[in-house]
Design a protein that fits this description.
This protein is mostly helical. It is about 60% helix and about 0% strand. The protein is built from five helices and no strands. α1 runs antiparallel to α4, α1 runs parallel beside α5 and α3 packs parallel to α4.
Length: about 170
């Protein structure tokens, strides 16, 4: 087994686990819980899922699936964000499914890990430069997105106390 396969399989397992834990948590919450934030300056679970969705859209859907880059990142952090539990579940599932599709592309074509998908992309948000490889992009998001999964779980525990992990 080559190194690229090991890395891709690891990332795929981790993203699938984050997808599962996020879904399990959100399913146990009310719409009020999803919109609640610990302080006026804090993000709600709705904000965090919207942010995950925005990041996946910007970093994966636009580059790998040709989606138009018309994202308004400020909406992700709108303190008055109104979105239903069903919509949050859909956004979360769609986001992780997209990442998994990109990883499947990489697994079928491991040489793509070293491609520079942003070389001609004008709207890169500054987290990586235009010379970044697909592997760098995947690793950047691997650091970024799980931190928000942890925030979602923490906020859910603040609201519910105990969460059932055996759903």
């Amino acid at each position: 087994m080559d190194t690229s396969t090991v890395v891709i399989d690891f990332l795929m397992r981790k993203y699938k686990a984050d997808q599962k834990w996020t879904r399990i948590v959100i399913e146990q919450l009310s719409e009020e819980d999803i919109l609640w934030s610990p302080t006026p300056e804090s993000n709600s679970i709705a904000n965090l899922v919207a942010h995950i969705s925005g990041a996946v859209y910007e970093w994966f859907e636009t580059v790998y699936f040709g989606a138009p880059n018309n994202l308004d990142r400020s909406k992700e952090f709108d303190r008055g964000l109104q979105i239903s539990k069903e919509q949050i579940l859909e956004l979360s599932e769609k986001s992780y499914d997209c990442i998994i599709k990109v990883l499947e592309i990489m697994k079928a074509n491991p040489e793509k890990l070293l491609e520079q998908p942003y070389i001609n992309y004008s709207n890169l948000n500054g987290a990586l430069d235009h010379q970044a490889t697909a592997l760098e992009m995947l690793l950047h998001q691997f650091r970024h997105l799980p931190s928000h999964t942890g925030q979602i779980i923490y906020i859910a525990k603040m609201r519910k106390g105990h969460l059932n992990w055996e759903i």
